Amino acid sequence: MITLDKIFKPKSIAVIGATPKRGTIGHQLLQNILHFGFNGMLFPVNPNYQYVNSIKCYPSVLSIPDPVDLAIIVVRKELVAHVADQCGEKGVGGLVILSAGFKEVGGEGIKREEEIVQLQKRYGFRIIGPNCMGISNSDPNVRLNGTFAPMEPGDGSLAFMTQSGALGVAILLAVQKRNLGISHFVSVGNKVDVGGDDLLEYWGNDPRVRVMGLYLESFGDPRRFTELSKKITRHKPVIVVKSGRTAAGSRAASSHTGQLAGLDIAVDALLRQCGVIRVSTLEEMMDLVLALNKNPLPKGGRVCILTNAGGPAIMATDAAVSEGLTMASLSDATCDRLGAFLPEEASLNNPVDMIASAGPDEYGKSLEVILEDDGVDIVLIVFVPPMLVEPREVMKKVAEARIKHNKPVYAVLMAEDRYYDEIPRRFDNAPPMYRFPESAVRAIASVNRYRQWCERPTGTVTTFASGDASVENIVHRQQQAGGGYLPPWDVNRVLGAYGFPVCKCEYVPKGEGVASAAEKVGFPMVLKAQGKDIIHKSDLGGVIVDIRNKKTLREAKAKMDKNLKAAGVWDRVDGFLIQEMAKPGKEVILGMTMDEKFGPLLMFGMGGTYVEVLKDITFRVMPVTDVDAHEMVREIRSYPLLEGVRGDERVDIEFIEESIQRLAQLVNDLPDITELDMNPVVITPDRAKCRVVDGRIRVAAPKANTNES
């Protein structure tokens, strides 16, 4: 397949649909290519003109006498397939199709798009679009602005992709406003060929690209995205704005895991595992791009705040602590050096408050001293300009001081708008500047988390011995029977085969006595109602615990029968489960649900009856490594309870980590399982006493046979 160089580094371009008519896309596009200074041959194509803008115009791409690397197409939707076919005949390597009226409009548009897809398969050219606003590459050897945007992309190290053409203009404006530059800009439109995965791979190998930004509305191939981004983010940050956070899942789910999972949770889990930085807004993205372009990565998360105003410094401190950053402790030597030239009223603790009279010299000297402190990783300057202090002079001194040290410096400048434009253009080494403390701290925290990702071990996928090969037959048999939930004894077989400590149990069909089963299990025990459609048994009075002798067993059985009849579910009861009583401990949940796009989605959290209320859970997509399992356990809010508080003993956390990895192996080995819950799993300090108290496994229905008879 042809590489993307034909699109991003063309030596010749045909603009098919170029026109001298002002106010049209064909005119604006040609003007943008000319004004940006494209370093190659340019061929306008339009059968209605001999010349466009004093450049010879050709009736079709086939009539161009020279080779054509890239065709940018802006013709009526009905003509696009014909033009693309001619491009294939000509041997054009890349197509950027700006024309709209395809899949996005439905109906005939879908058929038109399929024609383009078939032509791409026949000729092998690469396609961006259709329904996009174009591409740009600011490389001095190329100088291509193949968009119809009203502004030019400045030269820089940010490569940006958007699925929304309308947002493309907003992005280019935001970049221009912050005095940042663009290495590449791509509006992918309907993504019939080139998508985010292709661009990640291409930009990952481009030394001019330092930061990548993506605006995504949907994923193409999540597994390829995972594989690529895990490698790329180790040396280049990738920032994503993903829309659709509030979209509700369309399918009904009966397991805890299925009810708690949703598309956005899957996206969050995927991006977290790949080291991709997810932000909520384009403004956040620009704040972060500014930080990553202007600063080196920190060596740690210890922040020192240098200010001339107490209020904003307190706000910055609160934000830093809330974001998980550490307020640096300045050494005695640093405090002594600061005290030698700052006024007596200044506060030398962190935040360092130089008071309102601080000017350029105080900011410059203080910054140098603080940057030389080994206990400081990051410096945040807060400057509220008093009447007699010129902000440009302060930032000049800051710029001079920061270049002497390889530590990140950020600035909150609470001044007039004009300074945000003037200072970066005037001082190349000016720090990234923000209007408010919270914005700066949010960017600092995101960069620090990215730094932690870069230092994070890659981890390994552990394989455990599976002691019962017949579990595949159990799942297959259930699938052939129409799918649905496995009976509890088969659940225990499957979980036991993968090393989960299940409770000893005996099943008693409805209408039979429970005494003989109780003798096999032993006291104390638990009595549970069983039925294919009975899901949350405890809500119906279908679970009675701590049964200690035969008498209380008879009483419990009578009580449960009454409860189930009162709840109106007696006819749905198939039988009863006699189960050993687990030792007391902390209750957690382990689960999996199958996401249509992302595959198996693993869940861990605090379990029990309140799991759906408290929602103290975390998710991962496959594959799950030992490092992922370690992080999952520590991500939940209740993790300190597992470590032990108020005299409680620490539970076997390593057993939980191992169980997450065993679950990952189970769902990988048995792909026809669509939902799985182990809730609660009782975790104690002694691994031998840990137990899976309740488990549910749902098997997919048999796949439809698509073979024609």
Instruction: Give the biggest sheet.
Output: 7 strands, mixed
Q: What is the CATH third-level topology name of the domain at 5-209? A: Rossmann fold
Percent helix: 25-40%
Distance between the termini: 36 Å
Average pLDDT for all residues: 91
Low-confidence stretches: 247-254
Backbone structural class? alpha/beta
Cα-atom radius of gyration? 32 Å
Number of helices: 24
- Inertia-based shape: flat
What is the CATH top level name of the domain at 5-209? Answer: Alpha Beta
In total, the number of strands is 31
Query: What share of the residues does DSSP label as strand, in percent?
Result: 15-25%
Descriptive account of the structure:
The protein is α/β, with parallel strands linked by helices and 709 residues long. Helix content is 37%, strand content 21%. It has 24 helices and 31 strands. The strands form 6 sheets. It has a 7-stranded mixed β-sheet with strand order 9-8-11-10-12-13-14, sandwiched between helices. Strands 21, 26, 27, 28, 29, 30 and 31 form a 7-stranded antiparallel β-sheet that branches.
